[in-house]
Amino acid sequence: MALKSTIFKADLQIADMDRQYYDGHMLTIARHPSETDERMMVRIMAFVLHASEALVFGKGLSADDEPDLWLKDLTGAIDLWIEVGQPDEKRILKACGRSNQVIIYSYSSMSNIWWNQIASKVDRAKNLSVFNLPAATSQALAKLAQRNMQLQCTIQDAQVWINGEGESLLIDLQTLKIPADTTR
């Protein structure tokens, strides 16, 4: 018998001073049986960083042709494709061909090895941004995971503060690649 996804609910209060975005979101997240709390929480962090009413979670680990999160315009064209983890160059380049902007949030102690192997292969992708979440930070973020979460998220000067369960966590992403004509 196949294992079912575990349902998590997150009440997010977001104050993004960098984008002047202030809103609350009630998320229902299906965590695939093979997904860890750490990966799920990095997906939530990615949602926080790009929050909008149109940003939605993809089908997750069970779908090869969808990202972890995406934003489509009214015609169905993909404006933003967000991946969490360490996708291979084939998947990255395919996403870059399908979307206006692709962002990857890598995490784990192996991220530097992954990036060193893949960086030259995806260098030609002009609409790709890659950020790394230090392993210690992503593990601390995982500790905030609960079936029913209330998280207060503040973004200012490209730093992210996530508060939940009496814990306050600073997330300072490392930039690995951004398009030449943009700043984070």
TrEMBL record:
- Protein name listed in UniProt: YaeQ family protein
